[in-house]
Each structure stands twice: as structure tokens, then as C-alpha cells.
Amino acid sequence: MNNLANAKAVWIETAKDLRSLLGDNAHRSWTARLSLHSADAGVVRLTGPTRFVLSRIETDYGHSIAELWAARDNRLVVLGLASDFDSAPLDNAAPAQNSLADSPRPASASASPQLKLVTPPAECPPENEAIVAQAKPESRERRFTFDNFVVGPTNELAYAIARKVVATPEAQYNPVVIHGPHGMGKTHLLHAVKSEIEMTDPARRVHLINSEQFVSTFVRSLRGQGREAVDAFKSSLRDVDLLIIDDAHFIADKPTSQEELLHTLISLVGESRQVLLATDRHPHAITKASDRLKSIMCAGLLCDIGPADYELRRRILDRLIERKRGGPNPALAMPQTARDHLAARINATPRDLEGAFNQVVARSEFLGRPLTLESVQEALSHSRYNNGMRPTVDKIQRATGKEFGITMDDMLSKRRARAIARPRQVAMYLAKIMTTRSLPDIGRRFGGRDHTTVIHAVKRIESLRAEDSALNAHIEAVIEALKS
Fold first, then answer.
1. Theoretical Cys-Cys bridge with 70: which of 113, 284, 307, 361, CB 3.0 to 4.6 Å?
2. What angle do CA 399, 24, 26 make, to 5 degrees?
3. What is the pLDDT of residue 105?
4. CATH topology (fold) of 393-483
5. Which CATH number fits domain 3-117: 3.30.300.180, 3.40.50.920, 3.30.70.1350, 2.60.200.30?
6. Bridge-partner residues for 47, per DSSP?
7. How do residues 134-159 score in pLDDT, each as one tens digit?
8. Whether the predicted pLDDT of 232 surpasses 60
9. CATH number, span 310-381
């Protein structure tokens, strides 16, 4: 068998092992996006779609890839874009400089498994590098950095766009609007952009202002402070290279302030000066915004941040634990079972997850008890995150049917019309995440369906929640109804 054919066979088996090791979600989001490019006697080359994806795979999953490959093949594994390999062939004899896998190889192997990138992406450093935590409380500028932002499928695009704004002084898309519910990380990204530019390009003029500051400062300048105060306010917004406005949707509530925002955007966009906005919804859903304001906000680049999936919530918890260890509790330890339970239980925003984590840790510190699965369950039972008794599958079906306007007969029927099938999938998804019922049991309660139907429904709704804001709003409404 030649080198390439052998490598293809090894990659097929390695990919299967990665899926089993990492789980379907993580594998589908990251390692499944790799492809075998070429192979020779000493090196096998895997390609990915972007440098961002390659960097994330290297930092989070490189060790696993190298070890699983090494169990079957002795060659060095290298990640890169196809253009890297096509334009500049790698020196096969060169040793890996940034090997991620330093654990012993299986007894049958003769060297340590290795994986490396051809050229680490300068514009996108690995997001999960070790955090140098400070003993004193972190300021917003120190905490809200790109290194501290945990990236997953639902916020990957927003993260990449924010990095692009930093790396490209010339406005390619203008304005850029990042939208999504509160607590998803929009403010974090805005401050990260400002902090990164101040470190890497201090000559670039950046002004970050939130909606409250915008409205209050503008109103004060109008009330008795004279024309000079109004001109000074306008100058602070327009004599910049990059204007960043957080919670811009609130400005639409004030007609005069909205008019000033509109003229500011027209001025900056017309002069090709970059504007970066964050809102809690799509511009067209900001009911009090004028058509002109909606139009200019939608003329650039819109990017939404969706709900964090289970895998992302687990990684956020890992980051929170690392931060705590660098502060007042260096010995903080939370077993994996407790982390998994917390990530599964707090199926809300990253901000809610952090609040629940702080509550769990505070009880442990103040009561002098170790963090265990039992202590986490006890802490959550006394918090607002405790939903009381778990809803039954029947209650979930009825609440979902009421929200979507279908009957229980429709829910349990064999009908496949989308108006019925989609609410049925939502109910299956909620039954999976909100009850302890097994997949076969859930399937039986939906008209005798197979467990594979439930699995398909859960995966489909998880995907749609990140893509379809209207559907996600319906799901959130059902969840709130079940909690009440």
C-alpha cells in the first residue's frame, strides 16, 4: 500500500476514534473539518478551512490527534491550509518545534507523537492559552480580552470578525453589528477589540461608549451647556478611526439621541471610518428604530451570537476554574462529574453560568466543604437555578404544543408537516435536556417512535437554536413556561 493510501486508512480510523473521544458536537465542530492533503515517508499533512479553525484544533485537540495517529502510524502530523502545502513544501526532515503531544507513545512506537502547525496564525492566537491571573480583582480591560474569550460554534464568526476589525484599520464592512441576547459575550468582544488595538496600534484612535453614556452625555450637552458642548460631544464620536457602541438598541428609545446616532453613523461610514455596534436583537427587530437607522445598520455586516451549547459551557467552566486558581483560591478543584452537571444544568447564557459557578464556589469557600458533585447539586438546589421538580414529558409536550399552536393529537401523530414536526422535535429536545428519561423512553412517549428519531430531533434543534432566532425565542418561552 502506498503512503497516501495508508494515510487515508489511518485517518479514517483516527477520525472514528476522535468522534468517540471528543463526542459528536466537538468532533463535528472542529476535528471533522480536517481533511487529508498528502503523505510521504515522514510526514502526513492535514488541512482545515481557515487558520482560526486550525489554531483552535491545535490548541484544544492536537494532543489527542497526535496520540491517536501515533497508535497506528509513526509519521509526524502537520496541520495547515492547502495553500501552505501547495506553495511551500515542508522539509520532511525538520523536527517539530511546537509539539503538543509529549506523553509517552504506546510501547510499540519508538518516538513521542507529534503534531504541529506549518505557520501559526499571527492574526488569531490560540484562545485557550494559559491565563496569567492576577491576585487582585481584574479590571474590565484586563478581563475582557481575546485570550479570555472562549470560542465555540455559536460565537466563532463574531470572534473572527472582531479580530478582523483589529487587524484591518481600513473598513471592509461598515458598520459591523454583533447582535444576540444579553449575557452572550458581546460586551466582552467590544472591550477586547479596544484593548487589543491599544496594545498593538496605539496611534489608531478608538472610542468605546455604551448607550447610557451616549444618551446622558448628549442630553447634558443639549441642556444649557451651549453649542460648544454639543460640538465637543459630536467630535468625540466622529474624530476617531474606530467608534464602538455597546447596547446601541437602547439609543433608539430616545428620538433625539437616535437622530444623533444616525448622523454619526452616516458621517463615519461616509468617511470609511470603522463602526462596531452591539445590540440585543437584529436591527429590524428594534421596533423604535427609524427605517433610515435600520437601513444603515443593515448595510454593513450583521453577525449574531447564539446560545452556548453544552461543549462550550464546559469549556467556559474550565476557564472560570483556571481564573479562580490564579486568584484567592489557588487550590480550587472541581471533579469532572461536577463540571458536567453544572454545564448541563445551567442551560442559559455564559453570564448565568458564571453566576451559578460563583455561587457554587462561594458556598464551598465559606462553608469549608470540598467541591463534589453532591455539593454542586446542593448549592444549585438553593439557588434561582433550581427549577423545583423536573417537568414531565407530558407537561413538556403540552407547553410546547400551546406555544406553537398544535394539539396533543398532532404531537403524537405520524404527521410530518413542518408545522407539526418542528414543534414535536422541540418537545423531544426539551424532554432530553430537562428530564432524566432515556432516549427510548422519550421516543415511546411520542407515539412509539424510535430512539434514533429522538437523537435526530435533539441534534437538529441544537443546530437551529444557533441559526434561527425566532425559533429560539419560542423555545425560551416554553422553558420559561415550564419553570413558572
1. 113
2. 105
3. 36
4. Chromosomal Replication Initiator Protein Dnaa; Chain: A; (1.10.1750)
5. 3.30.300.180
6. 35, 80
7. 233 444 556 788 888 888 888 889 99
8. yes
9. 1.10.8.60
The pLDDT value recorded for residue 322 is: 83
pTM listed for this prediction: 0.52
Of the pLDDT bands very low, low, confident and very high (cuts 50, 70, 90), residue 327 is low
pLDDT at 311 over 90: no
Cell numbers at 79, concatenated: 496541520
CATH assignment of 144-304?
Answer: 3.40.50.300
